[in-house]
Design brief:
The chain is an alpha/beta fold. The protein has a single domain, classed as Rossmann fold. Helix content is 38%, strand content 16%. The protein contains 11 helices and 8 strands. The chain has an 8-stranded mixed sheet with strand order 3-4-2-5-1-6-7-8, with helices on both faces. Helix 1 packs across helix 11 and helix 5 packs across helix 6. The N and C termini lie far apart (37 Å). The structure holds adenosine-5'-triphosphate and magnesium ion (MG).
Length: 258
Amino acid sequence: MSMQTSISVAVASAKGGVGKSLAATNLSALTAARLHLRTALVDLDAGNGIDDLLLDLAPEKSWLDLMPVLQEITSEHLELARTVHTSGLHLFAAPADYVGAHGLESSQFTALLRVLRENYQFIVLDCPSGLVPITRNAVSRCDVILFLLTPDAPCLRSTQRMLAHLPESPPLGLVLSQYEVGGVFSPSDIEKTLRRTMLGVLPIDARAVWENVHYGQPCALSRKRGLAAEYRRVASVLTKDLHPHQPALARMPTGNGS
Ligand SMILES: Nc1ncnc2c1ncn2[C@@H]1O[C@H](COP(=O)(O)OP(=O)(O)OP(=O)(O)O)[C@@H](O)[C@H]1O
Ligand SMILES: [Mg+2]
């Protein structure tokens, strides 16, 4: 059986605030800590990145520091720019500066992704919302797009518009976020409207998100049910070609507590 050596996942959305950064941090913490995959998380949201906060990290460098050495980049350069999380994941934090990151050219992005592929098995690109240039680069060069949306009319309309502008390849997994049973739109309504099947449905989980947002504890590592369980299921699906002999995250034992 032929196995992929690396998978890069761009986490994107049409509207902001849907849950991309929570998903990106939790999925990468899971693949690093539970599947022991060499995992890189790249916070592409220059100026607004929060992945460091969601992981309780204090990065001194960002991926923008790699730009001057991109053509001759080595693993040592990556070591200098990364921040290591207790889960084992390597965060390439967002630069505080919008301006430098906006000047990033497609060729620079391609070079960055190439060196990440050479050094990591699972690469998560946490994108800014909408089709800004850096997101366009990420969604056209990654292996899988994880596209999040919330179940409301404004987000559904923006999603329809953005999906129409995305390339046919790479494959796209739709993830419904902040879902509550009994809402106006069900997952199957949304599947019919968008003519796509859903890869995951992330429930509203205020307690899990509270700890994550305020204390930087990835809920997928500390909790078993609710949002954490769905992150595990999505992580299993995304990494199925990377870890044929590893126990599936989706079958991890569940306890009583959340
Ligand atoms: N499953 C959930 N349950 C409850 N609240 C949620 C959930 N997912 C996201 N939220 C809320 O949405 C907020 C935004 O989440 P997050 O920062 O992950 O979104 P984002 O898509 O990355 O936003 P941006 O577009 O600004 O980058 C969280 O701080 C939280 O308040
Ligand atoms: Mg975000």
